[in-house]
Structures are given as C-alpha cells and as structure tokens.
Design a protein that fits this description.
Blueprint lengths: L2 H11 L5 H13 L14 H25 L3 H25 L1 H29 L3 H29 L10 E4 L5 E8 L6 H7 L12 E6 L1 H4 L4 E5 L3 E3 L19 H4 E4 L5 E3 L1 H6 L8 H22 L1
Antiparallel strand pairs: 1-2, 1-5, 2-3, 3-4, 6-7
Length: 311
C-alpha cells in the first residue's frame, strides 16, 4: 500500500463515524491489501483501492472544510483547503497514469499527421523532378502512414463513444469465479499496469484490453476478505436473485466501502450512488423504474377508489 493510501486510511479511521465502522475501514485498507488474495479474486487491484481511498479522503476533507467554515474557524479551513489541493494533485497524477493509453493514441494521430504532410511534400517534389522510383517508394510509405493514422483515429473514436453494460451501484456476478459484487466505478479500457495484466491474463480475453473495465466491491462472504476488483466487462453478468427465495441480508454486498459510496438499495437490490460518486463519473441520477411504476399505480388506485365511493 502506498503512502497516499495509508494517509487516507488514517484520516478515514479518525473521521466522525461510529467506532465499529472506523475499525472496519482501517482493517479493510490495511489487512485486505496487506496479504495474499484468496484464489477466487484474481482481478483484485491495489491501484483501484488507492483510487477509492483518495476519493474518500477528499470527500471527508470537504466535509471538514465546510464544518470549519460554518464555525468560522478560518485557520483550520485554510489547512483543509491545502490538504484538499494535495489530494487533488495526487488524484490528477493517478488519472494521468490511467490515461496513458488514450494519450498514446492521440500522440500517434498527431505524429502520423505530421509525417503524412512531410511525405506528401517529398512525393510532390519527386514527381516534379521526375524521380519516379523515389516517388513510388514515398507513395507506399504514405499509404502505410495513412492506414496507421486511420487506425489510431478509430481507436480514439471508440473510446469516446463507449457504452457501458453495467452502471454504478449495479450488483454483478463474476462469470468464471461466481463471486458477487457491486460496481463502484469504470474505465473505457484497461488502465492497470503491465504486471497486473500479465498476472490476470487480461490480454488473453476474447475482447482484449480495449473493452470497459469495472471497479467492483467483492462480497466478503464469497471472497473471505474485503476485496476491490478490476474486472473486464466480458467477465461480469447482472446478478439475478429473482428465482431464489433470498432474504434482504443476502441481497446486500458485505463490504464496508458500500457505506461510503452508496445511500442504500433500491427495490431491485441495486445500490444508489452518492452525489459525489455520480459527479466523479459525470452520471445523472438514476431513478428506479419499478418504484416509479408503483407510485403511479398507487395514484391510479386512489383515483379509482374515490370514484367508486362517489358512485
């Protein structure tokens, strides 16, 4: 665990939360990520865990800042602002690391454009000077550069119009290992390290690394510990308890981070993201269609009931 993650853990542990819950957060960050993972959670990710800890740290500091301002404790507020700035810098560095794949594609497009312009100029000069053999060679090179540029542009376009199969708060099941969890984040493509990719064999999947990857809180009852996983879209399915007589407790995901990222559960058992989590991913509030239909039905029943009484 990095220094940033440890600092976040200590702050969260001392936050204004019940003592039992503070202990859970501290133990989750320290114990779960300080020992070898159970075999069932191959895609566990320390990088995603650190990203979540930084997110928690920033939210907590924002709450403390607002409290200090309300109490007119301006010196304390200034210190909180400095700490928030430090956390945001760390979050930006982390995002820059994640976007390396996107940046490399953009850089490839830019380089190919410049190379293409230069080759066109040289090709025109060769034709004017009647150096036809050189012109043929330049034309072949230009075709290769243009093909490479088109491929890079297509890759960038794909990343900009990604459609995610799963949403924040949705409960999912791992297709191979069958553990359950809840989605708490996502990326348009794999943003993990080369060593993580090699260890998890993520590059050997049918859809490869350029598919959506999801941050998932793993149910401790399935994994034996509080794990955070980073899972490819093709390895997840929507959890469906409709055919089972499941209790309310069994529909929950046992993981302490759920209390920091979600308000609770909707009628289907999926989790409701907090405003801070929705803003992180620029996601609008999602309304439970079943609850809306129930409200409409109740209103219609009330109306019809009133008509019967009048009759």
């Amino acid at each position: 665990m990095s220094i940033n993650a440890l600092r976040c853990t200590e702050v969260l542990a001392s936050a204004t939360q019940p003592a039992r819950y503070r202990c859970n957060v501290r133990n989750t960050a320290r114990a779960a990520f300080g020992r070898k993972a159970p075999k069932g959670v191959l895609e566990r990710s320390a990088a995603v865990n650190e990203e979540l800890l930084l997110f928690f740290y920033k939210v907590d500091l924002g709450t403390r800042l607002q409290r200090a301002l309300n109490l007119e404790q301006y010196d304390a507020a200034q210190e909180f602002r400095k700490k928030i700035s430090e956390v945001e810098d760390a979050m930006h560095r982390q995002q820059d690391e994640k976007k390396k794949g996107h940046v490399s594609s953009q850089a490839e497009v830019t380089d190919n454009t410049a190379t293409g312009l230069q080759l066109r100029s040289e090709l025109q000069r060769a034709i004017e000077e009647e150096r036809y053999q050189d012109a043929a060679s330049l034309r072949d090179r230009l075709s290769e550069v243009e093909a490479s540029s088109l491929a890079a542009q297509a890759s960038l376009a794909t990343l900009s119009i990604v459609e995610y199969e799963f949403r924040l708060g949705q409960q999912v099941v791992h297709t191979e290992d069958s553990w359950r969890g809840v989605v708490c984040g996502f990326d348009p493509m794999c943003c993990e390290s080369d060593s993580w990719v090699k260890e998890t064999k993520a590059d050997a999947m049918a859809r490869g690394l350029k598919q959506p990857f999801y941050q998932v809180l793993v149910d401790a009852r399935d994994s034996g510990s509080y794990d955070v996983a980073y899972v490819a879209e093709e390895r997840l399915l929507i959890r469906d308890d409709s055919e089972q007589a499941t209790s309310e407790a069994s529909k929950e995901v046992e993981h302490p981070y759920t209390y920091l990222l979600f308000f609770g559960q909707d009628s289907k058992g999926d989790y409701i993201p907090t405003r801070n989590l929705r803003e992180k991913y620029s996601i609008d509030r999602w309304d439970d269609e079943d609850e809306e239909e129930e409200e409409v039905d109740e209103e219609e029943d009330d109306g019809s009931g009133g008509d019967d009484k009048n009759d």
